Amino acid sequence: MTYHQLTSEERYMLSAGRRQGLNQAQIARQLGRHRSTIGRELKRNSSRWDGNYRPSKAIERTHGRRSRSRRNQRFTAEELHCVEALLRQQWSPEQVSGLLRRQQRLRISHETIYRHVWHDRRCGGNLHEHLRGARKRRFRKRYRSYDSRGRLAGKRHLSERPAAVAGRRQLLTVVDDCTHEAVAVHPDRAMSGAYVARILDRLKHERGLPKVIRSDNVLNASRHSLRGNSNPGRPAAADRRRSSR
């Protein structure tokens, strides 16, 4: 269904019907329009101050909205050439839009410039190559593929290490968050939760209860071994690391 706006004659007839005291449905029947069309016209073009409908002002407002509509806005070849010259100087569409508006040479939005660039690309042009994002190299996401990032080339597997370093040692490091002081460093071949609890219990008697104990995600430093070793006070952190002998 095609929508047709009210003509100037219909707007004058609408105003006359309102002066006669007719409601919107009665005016719509006289004009052969739907009553919602009359309601939209009154809502758009009635005066903001007294609510009266003046057909001359309604026609003026309609023409103003139509001239400002982006759908009906067209730019000349000279104006587009000016935009393209700035784009080729590595100006972004946002900068081009702001510069031309500030110089009062042209009012064009950056979205319109982007649409012109993509239209130029579809027609075989190269404006898109001057966009800043065009210089960025885009990589395909590695779905279900081997990810080599962060891996050392020629790295030996753990099973291939010499027998001399076969016995691993564990290192318990306790760091004070306030002073960044390593208050305890204990290397050993194996550390149980009871072993960690004894170390922390000794530090509790020497330095007092800390406010918070943070640990890495290991079984030996579980919440059961840390229970009873923290209290409101100075914060501390427990960090357990492994090293090779």
Explain this structure:
- With 245 residues, this protein is of the alpha+beta class.
- The protein folds into 3 domains: 8-70; 74-133; 167-244, no CATH class.
- The chain has 9 helices and 4 strands; from the N terminus they run H-H-H-H-H-H-H-E-E-H-E-H-E.
- The protein has helices spanning 8-19, 24-31, 35-45, 55-68, 77-88, 93-102, 110-122, 193-207, 223-226; strands spanning 168-175, 182-188, 210-214, 234-244.
- A hairpin with a 6-residue loop joins strand 1 (168-175) and strand 2 (182-188).
- The radius of gyration is 38 Å and the shape is elongated.
Number of contiguous helices:
9
Between the first and last Cα atoms, what is the distance in angstroms? 84 Å
The geometry reads as elongated
Strand count: 4
Mean pLDDT: 78
Note the beta-strand portion. 5-15%
Order of helices and strands: HHHHHHHEEHEHE
Q: Which residue ranges are poorly predicted, with pLDDT under 50 across at least 5 consecutive positions?
A: 232-245
Structural class: alpha+beta
Task: Name the features.
245 residues, disordered C terminus, 3 domains, elongated
Describe this structure in a few short sentences.
The chain has helices at 8-19, 24-31, 35-45, 55-68, 77-88, 93-102, 110-122, 193-207, 223-226, and strands spanning 168-175, 182-188, 210-214, 234-244. With 245 residues, it is α+β, with helices and mostly antiparallel strands. It has a four-stranded mixed sheet with strand order 2-1-4-3, covered by helices on one side.
